[in-house]
Amino acid sequence: MPESRLRRTLRSLLPPRVRDDMFDPAAHDLDADYARGEQRRRTVGLVLLFLDCWRLAPAEVLSMFLNDLRHAFRLLYRDPGFTLAAVLTLTLGVGGNVTVFAIVNAVLLRPLPYPNAEELVIIEHRDRRTGITKGFIAAGDYVDLHTRQEAFESIAGYGTLRTIVYGEDEPEDAAALMASAELLSILRMTPLEGRAIAPGDTRAGAAPVVVLGHAFWQTRLGGDPAIVGRSLNIVGPNGSAVMRQVVGIASPLFRFPARSNTDLILPLPLPAEAPAVRKSGWTFAAARLKPGVTIEAGSTQLAAISRQMEQEHPTQNEGSEYYAVPLRDATVGETKAALLLMLGAVGLVLLIACVNVANLLAARSLGRRQEMSVRAALGAGRRQIAMQLIAESVALAMVAGAAAILFASWATPALTRLMSESLDAAALGAVTIDRTVLVFAAAVTLFVIVAFSLFSALGIRRDTFAGTALSPTRVTTGRAVRRATSTLVAAEIALAIVLLAGAGLVLRSFSNLLSVDPGFNPQNVLTLEIIAPADRYRDVSARAALQGRMFEAIRSIRSVTEAGSAAVTPLTGNNWTASFERADRPVPAGQRPPDVGWQAATGGYFRALEIPLRSGRYFSAQDGPSAPPVVIVSETIERQFFPGESAVGRRVRIGDGEAAEIVGVVGDIRRAALTDAPRADMYFPQEHAPSIGTTLFIRTSGGPTAIVPELRAALRQLDPAIVMRRIETMDDVTRESMQLTRVTLWLLGMFAVSALALAAIGIYGVMSYTVRGRMREIGTRMALGATPGGIVRLVLADGVRIACIGTVIGLAGSFAAGRALRSLLFGTSPTDPWVLLAATGVLLLTAVVACYVPARRAGRLDPVKTLAGW
Fold this sequence. Notes:
Shape: elongated
Distance between the termini: 48 Å
Oligomer: single chain
Number of domains: 5
Number of strands: 24
Structural class: alpha+beta
Number of helices: 26
């Protein structure tokens, strides 16, 4: 009857103990009411009784589950081989994910230290003609963008500067932020003491002031609260040391850019009106979006203003376009793509680990079929058996999760040290196993629990547990179970080949980078930055004299073979450009001259780096301050602008129409990065306009770092106030330029090797599982005349077939993964056939080796003993 069906349905939804002790006795009373014809009352009563029973059910369910969980831990303890294999596999998968996520969390997810940081953007420049992008904008364009835009609260200029603070002790190196008055406002920086930079501080002739960074104030000035109002002797952007009044102390933890240190904040003078030569100065620019304005709308408006400026000033702004980039994206740069790639790769390792453990569970369940059959015969229902298996999954995941946290606490510092050259110290210093990382670890562990619980539940549906007296030797597996485990292994192989192909592509790229000729010889070259006090060398002749004495002193050091200087170091991302125009072939009126790269260097710079001279000469002392202006050009400039003729002796326009003679042509170098093609470069002589701050390049006959003590002594003897910093070899600079690719290769390689090992274990496990489940079939085949070699080939064929299916699927996935790697590749295609072929060969060979052991064991079965057990 309808009521009896309702009762059975509600009864089946209750835990056994609640059903027996509460629901059934109370339902008998309702039956008496039904006998007197009160059908509606009985129906309502059953529903209310069911709800009341469930009020007590949670405690009952929890108690039952805790009992199952305790039993699960005992089973894991009694089976140490399985437990150790499963826990180690899951620890690798979960721990690797937690480790990489800790880095991702610190660099990409943790909020930047500014209120409503998602509204902050950096304004960058793109040249549509060349495709070159720059993180800064021209001074003239800054003025127009600042006054015409309506999408931002304000546009603020800024820059960074390595400066020197002179005191009673040794000169101190400091990181300074050059800021317009609007910058600290849009960053919402409220000073701890005093005031911030005011508009009047950035005007010409204003009194020099400084705001101290909180950490600098604490560590180098002792946290003296009376420092506000006093003056410090600080080198400014023009190289001159001036007494600057301390007007404020920044709030704790304030720094800008977000991943750098800010020791000092100095006013940044910017023109109130656009200069006639709009490209005569450059500044970085930040802005804050107005409420309700999206970054896309802001970029659209910047593009519209760029077109207006292009129409108004075609000779200077042709092809120039400005756009907005989120502050976080501008801060992390290419690191974002690499970190997300690592997170995806380690996620694949987790999936492979889960597949492996699922196969271990399947193999283990085969040996427990008799146990489960006995449980079923004694009255255990499928729900109870399923709850026990789910409890075992929970117990296994809990142990693995705890082990993964311990693994991550060790692996995170190691990974941080590995990435120390790819990420800045400020970001890496914030890498910790914090609450967010622990929540992520719990989520990953929960995923593992759900995956294994579903697998266990599906296994219950497939097993009948018939035959309580089955002997373990008579256990066999059905085709559906074998198909399920084979599918899991095929998926595991597909994931493994995606990682192998990705690692192979990055390895190919790294190999290509190593073979790139940068155009110079970085071996045995020491590079360092120096700054001399500008107040002692105010005029050009004094600086030229210092430069001459400095190189004379350096060349007198034993083992130094050549020395020179330049404005910037190659391979450090420099994209400085200047207009290039032949004096005899001026660009038509109304058109913008093409841009080429530029560098200021001495003649010794070319000799120290062994940049070849193609024709003409290098710079020399004859190109001093009183000499006519000259330049050296790269062979790409000669090829592009002087086809079929020599560039030496030709004249080019520089600056405000001034002409300079080309005195030499040198070989091309990769100025910004090894991945950039050699560009057209023009060199200006530092002999003509010596600088008090420059970068030295010193070639030695032996190890370059060995001369540092003598070099320091020689420079101190020239002037004790000269500051040396950023001392490293050019080999180090070259390695740092490839560091992101190297780290990606190392991590992807590690994940790929892990995936390959797990795939081999998975293939071995499933083939062992298959052989065990097909013992009767194999025994029968051998009894009917099959040879051991034939049995080995049969098992190998099954394993290789699974591997081939997984490989085909994995190759399809590797095409998509290759596109994600595109930004990190150099000199190779995401679908490089040789890489894919090598990955396929390695995986198939691994599959054959993994299948051979169980295949050989199957070939050695004794058919008499095997069939006797049946």
